[in-house]
Amino acid sequence: MSLRTLLIVLGDQLDDAVPDRLELDRERDAIWMAEVAEEIEYVPSHKRRIAVFLAAMRHFRDRRRSGGWTVHYHALTPDPAEDRGSSFRDLLVSDLDELSPERIVAVLPGDWRVRTMLKELSAEREQAGAPAVELVEDDHFLCSVRDFRSWADGRKRFLLEDFYRFMRKRDGVLMEGGDPVGGDWNFDADNRESFGKDGPDDLPPIPRFEPDHTTGDVLDLVASRWPDHPGSLDGFAEAVTLEHARAALDDFIEHRLPRFGTYQDALWTGTDFLFHSRLSVVLNLKLLDPRDAIAAAEDAYHRGHAPINAVEGFVRQILGWREYVRGIYWTFMPEYAERNALDCDEAADVPTFFWDGDTEMACVRDAMRNVLTHGYAHHIQRLMVLGLFAQLAGVHPYRFHEWHMAMYLDAVDWVSLPNTLGMSQFGDGGLVGTKPYCASGAYISRQGNHCDACRYHPRASDDEDACPFTALYWDFLARHEDRLEDNRRMGFQYRNVERRRERGTLEPARRRAAEILKTLAEGGRV
What we know:
49% of the residues lie in helices and 5% in strands. By secondary structure, the chain is mainly alpha-helical. The chain folds into three domains: 5-136, 3-Layer(aba) Sandwich (Rossmann fold); 145-204 and 256-332, Serine Threonine Protein Phosphatase 5, Tetratricopeptide repeat, CATH 1.25.40.80; 353-521, DNA Cyclobutane Dipyrimidine Photolyase, subunit A, domain 3. The strands form two sheets. It has a five-stranded parallel β-sheet with strand order 3-2-1-4-5, with helices on both faces.
């Protein structure tokens, strides 16, 4: 029997519902998947990130095969010479010639680069009289690209809060009739507590999913083939199956959601996860449906298990932010990736300690320990420690995005680029965030205890013991004054710049910043 439909499944599309949604038949249709070295090596991916993707893909393959599906699968080997090919496109073309499907279908990729490749291949095949590659909408998401563009059409601003309220109303999430549950749309003001001098207590453990034989094979492969890539595989117990993903959601709802909101922005030395969910990985691999996560959080509120500030904050991350950044990505790409609103030097890459964690800044060192060990950092470590330092130091926004893509388990281009280039680095000039998320060491000091054991002083700005964040903060504001001083949300900061200028303390801080930037440019450490 000839092959009717070949479904191309990418490494971040492990959604079991897709064949049913496309009305595929296991007797007449098949699935095609490939592990490809170029997708792993075009940025030097964290070992744990490689392992998560490959293990999840192989479990998906085995699950479909056990259900009677034919899965044409290319697996990488310890010896690159034994690979059938290193290019996704070449492997696909070769198999299409051999399998000759009547129809080829792929869900919209999460990466503009991959979509472009598939569209170019499709055009070539169509010109040659062969079946084209049909790209279909990814129904995993709650807001289609078309719906987002309809919402955005005619708007002068694209604020998350506006989109979030639109989605809440449209989908009836945390709503009572036409009003938001709890009386407010946003409880962010209740979600900024620090732990106080005693730190967090009774932190619940993160669930562990011990590697089975399939995952063990992947770990051996990664250790053998990419020994020099950053990060560690020690203690690997990540969620890589549907069952793992559901268990991770249930564990978060039961043990961490009730305090997630209150301490969402808190920092504390040596605490890797605090009350954060760590569900972004299984959501972005499509092992967990966002509708299930939202429903579970809503249920926790209605049965009195979690307060509204925690539930609303969690729902906003999924229904609001996650859907919003995807819409931004597909609406403004490919031009979006070229944005560099602060005119950062094209060659300005992340500091060396973003790869090995070797720095005297306690907050950065602790965040990098988390990244190197787990391929993870919670959102304040990402945005207000690592992202903040990169922004203040003038790292090119796309270089920061490339680093993010290499180091985080949950990084896929559609979610990483607006978060890094836009939200974190202000590279899009205010499309995603209306002001740069810039702050001095004093902010980090207020949010946790890292400054207590750091050689640098968070409020000092002009001597050898001055916190690099603080010196660079004043320099950042001064060097971008022409661009940012008229931003209505930065009036307070620029009034402080003027006070420093009048007191004669701005230039000493800028001289200290220049020393730090020179050290970084020479590959040194601070």
